[in-house]
Amino acid sequence: MAQPHRLPDIPAADFKLDTTLASGQSFRWRKHDDAYVGIVGATVLRVRHADNRLSVETSDKSFTVDDAKRYFGLDMDLAAVLRTIDVDAQVNAAIKRYRGLRVLNQDGWETLASFICSSFNNIKRIEGMIERLAQTYGDPVALNGFRSFSFPKPERIAASTERKLRTLGLGYRAAYLLAASRLVAGGRLHLDHMRKVDYDAAKTALLGCDGVGDKVADCVALFGCGKFEAFPIDVWMERAMRYYFRHRRMTRAVLHRYARQHFGPYAGVAQQYLFHYVRCASFP
C-alpha cells in the first residue's frame, strides 16, 4: 500500500470547504472527524481547512499543491469575481451567507458521467450510483485505513453492457452513460479539448450526447470544463430566478440570456451561490 503523502499547507483565505463540498458540485466527498475524505480520479484526498489554511494528505505523491489549488478553485481571485456578480439584493444575500464557496475544477469525464446519473435524481441516490460504478469498474484506492475505488475510466464502462449497468441501479440512465462512455473512449467526444474552445462550442458538443440536456450540459461545462459563463438551470434555479421574473414568463433560453447579461462572464459562480442559497433556505 502506498504511503500517505502530506502536502505543504496551502493558503486558503476566503474559502469555505464545507460549503463548497455540500453545494451539489461533486458526489465523492464524506465528512470524517474534522476533515473531509474524497476520491479525485484515482487519488484519495483527506483535507482539512482551518485558520485560513488547507491541509491536504494524499495517496498519490504526484498530486501537487498546484493540483489542489486548481481542484478547489483556490487559483481564482474570488474577491474580484464576487465584485462582478454582486449586482442585486438576492445574490448579495447569497454571497454574504456563503462567501467562500468556490467552483470546483473537476475531471471532464467524471463530471459528465456523474451528472448523467444526476438526471431526475436526489443526491443520496446519485452518490449510491457513483459508488456502485466505482466498486464495479474502478480500481482499489486507500489512505490511512480509508478504502474505496477510483472513478472508472470511460473505456471500462464502454466495454460493459446496458443490462449490467442497470443492475447497478442506474435505470434508464444506463443507456445514456454507456453511449457517453463510448463517445469518449472512441475519441469522438474530446472533453480535454472543450477546455480550449469557447462555452457555446463546448455546450453544443455536450448536447450531442444522448441523454445530455440543457442542465447536465451546463453542469459539465461549468464544473468539468472551466466555462464560468455556464448557468445550470434546474427547479431550484427556476425558483431563484423568479426574483428577476416575478410577472414575466420564464423559458430556459430567456433565463440563460438574462443570466449572461446580468451577471457577466462569471454567471456560473452567481448560479452556484444562488443555487445553494435557495436550496438551503428550503431545507434548513
Q: What is the overall pLDDT average?
A: 95
Shape: globular
Helical amount: 40-55%
The CATH homologous superfamily of the domain at 108-139 and 147-225 is termed Hypothetical protein, domain 2
CATH-derived architecture of the domain at 108-139 and 147-225: Orthogonal Bundle
Treating each run of at least 4 consecutive H or I residues as one helix, how many helices? 15
Distance between the termini: 41 Å
CATH class category of the domain at 108-139 and 147-225: Mainly Alpha
Low-confidence parts lasting 5 or more residues at pLDDT below 50?
A: none
- Give me the secondary-structure category: alpha+beta
CATH fold descriptor of the domain at 108-139 and 147-225: Endonuclease III, domain 1
Using only C-alpha atoms, the radius of gyration works out to 19 Å
Instruction: Characterize the main sheet.
Output: 6 strands, antiparallel
Helix-strand string: EEHEEEEHHHHHEEHHHHHHHHH
In terms of DSSP E residues, the strand content is 5-15%
Count of individual beta strands? 8
